[in-house]
Amino acid sequence: MAQKTQEIALNPGLLARAEVQALTPYQSARRIVEAAGGRGDIWLNANESAEAVPYDIEQKILNRYPDAQPEEVVERYARYAGVGKDQILVTRGGDEGIDLLVRTFCVPGRDAIVQFPPTYGMYSVCAETTNVRVVNLTTSPENNWAPDTAKLAETLVADPTVQVVFACSPNNPTGGLLSPDTVEELVEITRGRAILVIDEAYIEFAPESTNIPQIAMAPHVVIIRTLSKAFALAGIRCGFLISSPEVIGMLKKVIAPYPIPTPVSDIAAQALSMGGISAMQRRVQGTIKRRADLAQKLLTIRGVEEVRDSSSNFVLVKFTDGPAVFKALWDSGIIVRDQGRQPTLTNCIRITVGTLEENAELIEKLREVLGER
Ligand SMILES: *Cc1c(COP(=O)(O)O)cnc(C)c1O
What we know:
The chain is α/β, with parallel strands linked by helices. It has helices at residues 2-10, 18-21, 29-36, 71-81, 93-105, 122-129, 149-158, 180-190, 212-217, 245-254, 262-271, 274-298, 322-331, 356-370; strands spanning 42-43, 88-91, 112-115, 133-136, 162-168, 195-199, 221-226, 239-242, 304-307, 314-319, 334-335, 337-338, 348-352. The structure holds pyridoxal-5'-phosphate.
């Protein structure tokens, strides 16, 4: 006992919950580079927008707490998404939305979530932080990483503790969309049984494939959105959950009292004005063009085995020797995202579409290291 007291006196961090002590935190793009002392001249690893949009903060006085939910932002996002104002929750990035869903619907130490790896890392990080189990239904490239819906149905029968199912469309890091048939099956399998989350962080790059029409008929479906990608605002941390008023009402009980700082809602409202939205749509068209060009040039390089079709602002590339390519790029200051440790993604690297100049430098470096086909 005395020894334990002494250990804790030296390191009060040992008072943390056991699952937190065991946790590996989310390996954010920045964290990885900082930890390894990388210099990073060209950042193609976090799916940020290559183009920056300047903003002025219009609200100059900040002595009052903000609204619990910034009215103008809610109104504008509701109009943009085509849903009611009571169907929207503004969050500190899509990531806070993921965390809120886990904390609202899962009992720590008892319940579980389902995810379909390879997919976005934050679903499991949020679950593990909350001591919620993660059930992995791994997908495979042969059928374009489509979730196995029969397997999900079995899992929901066999394991009554599954409360939330996370699917991502377009999926990070594979870049593909859930097919309408798959979505319909997911919606019906989870109806009356669990919350179905569809993460649409990249949907502006394939806007016709949004699953928002689903939620009119399915109150248990939640859509995640963000301003971090197509809207070029990763720096303000602003995201959205869209669902039925019943689900949004529950989430509102759990979210912090004043989650959205006034300067954030100020800029978000500007980005969601008519002009802000059409500027975003023009940038998206440019990104899609540069993505096609990048994919085509990547295929001329020796050691590039495959460039997967993408409905997002990144491409997933399979190399003959992924780790060697990652290191060569890293050493020359071009930072991309290694996906080699995700199931089915050995030798795969995720590359964010950069500016014309950034993409050209990337291709030049790859030609130098690997040569041309
Ligand atoms: C980037 C991203 C998010 C959310 O990012 P925020 O910056 O927290 O809004 C959510 N899901 C996926 C799949 C993402 O790639």
